[in-house]
Amino acid sequence: MDWRFKVANREAWIGVALAVINFLWWYGFAYGLGSGPVSEYQFIFGMPAWFFYSCVVGSLLMIILVIIVVKFFLTEVPLDEEEDHS
Amino acid sequence: MNWGVMIPLIIFLAVVFVVGFWSSKTVYAKSDFMQEYFLGSRELGGLILAMTMIATYGSASSFVGGPGVAYTEGLGWVLLSMAQVATGYFVLLILGKKFAIMARRYNAVTLVDYMKVRYDNSKAVVILSALSIIIFLFAAMTAQWVGGARLIEAITGLSYTTALFVFAAAVLVYVIIGGFRAIAVTDMIQGLIMFAGTLILLVATVIAGGGMQNIMTELAQENEMLLTPFGHDGSLTPLYVSSFWILVGVGVVGLPQIAVRAMSYKDSRAMHRALIVGTIVVAFMMFGMHLAGVLARPILPGIDEPDTVMPTLAMTVLPAWLAGIVLAAPMAAIMSTVDALLLMVSSAVVKDVYYNYVNPKATEKKIKQVSIGVTSVLGISVVFFALSPPDLLIWLNLFAFGGLESAFVWPLVLGLYWARGNKYGALASIILGVGSYIAISVFAPEPFGMHSVVLPVVLSLVGYVLASLLTSSKQSHTIETS
Hints:
The complex is a heterodimer.
Chain A: H1 3-34, E1 43-44, E2 47-48, H2 49-72
Antiparallel strand pairs in A: 1-2
Helix pairs in contact in A: 1-2
Chain B: H1 3-23, H2 33-39, H3 46-57, H4 60-73, H5 75-81, H6 85-105, H7 111-118, H8 123-156, H9 160-208, H10 212-222, H11 238-249, H12 256-259, H13 268-299, H14 309-317, H15 320-358, H16 364-387, H17 391-417, H18 423-443, H19 454-471
Helix pairs in contact in B: 1-9, 1-15, 2-9, 3-9, 3-13, 3-15, 4-5, 4-13, 4-15, 5-11, 5-13, 6-13, 6-17, 7-8, 8-9, 8-15, 8-16, 8-17, 8-18, 9-13, 9-15, 9-16, 10-13, 14-15, 15-16, 17-18, 17-19, 18-19
């Protein structure tokens, strides 16, 4: 198999893993912290804690994870055919 | 007419027009006209790739419709909108390098070109794919066009017809003469305006409401459900909200106008950069606009028409000239969506239908004339349809994105990564996906409390896999994976 496709397959799985982490974090904090009565809500920077962790921290987490993935896990490959890659 | 608001808007339209016009110069210097006109000769760098993907994806609904619903539903709708953060990294990582490499190997200019080679030149696959793109995206484009004209009408007080022609003049010229490159370059400006507009509006709204804490307290006093993830009347169930991850999150991989951008970048470095920029921008934009919609509620109580929340909010909490900049954001969002859709439909007509089947021997000069001619005719006809949109188009628009996602996600993604997938699988996937999506939306919407798109995407997967497995003994597969 073209070595570039091994790279591509691995990176596609990284994409799936990121989406799974993203979803679990988003779902877990939103419904884990947000399901109780509103009178018992904690507030952070004026926002309900579920919202702060799920939407604000969740987005920051994903941005940081994407940066880490790009810096350390993605490989630069040539996209054109002319290079000898066997 | 409020000139304070108008001047930044006019400047914005003029800048887009001039930049679009200017960037069209290089188009005619390139040796392969079709590659250049429909794909920008695969020369996009990272920043511009990120911006064109986000600007194409971010539409009237992210800037006008979405904040309006958030105003009604509360923080639960912001939560729902955050499913879109995934689009920032998912599309590029999944289609990723494989799609870019295969598209180059196949010399594919359009998504359908890719499908054509991948699925053994199957005429049925090509025609069905091209037709789905033409029909659904033409309808979607008309709806966005109406949205653009309505927005200009609301801001300027011009009549709907005049507003429509202003909008058409601003967009059509650079798309027709400049093609993909002009679209990508203007998307860059439009994306920056969308980002800046979101930032300004969010900050101004928080200040106008007396701080985040104060706004949340007032929201809780009005209806404490606005602070929960469950919507203003508790009807947003976790399952329903989660199902939007398919429609506006991971399913976006299957939208042709987005997927085609994943074959337009210059090198892997551009893709890496676009991943970071794209995720940051899309996360901030979706969060900021939808949250502003919720925070608008104590400041502007009692708005009945959700689509007016965002323009009214901008005009209320900002000085006129800043409101003009903020209102350029939805305009930019709409423009950057319709220009991409127009070129996408045009490429389906010219490359996928005309060049494939009508006149495969067309000369370079002929192609040039036909490309520009078809884009012009489509652009002008969409303006006329937008004058009084036929019911059929409005109806089709409702199914456009979900329909295209159900049709293309699996033929595209499994076509890349699963060697046994074949043309029968692709056909089954397209027919089952589109058919079941329309049937479910019409006869039994939101089955099991999920968005109507979920089941068709699953059915489309089952169809693709079963049809491919059942027929794989009949034909030896010629797909190169090595």
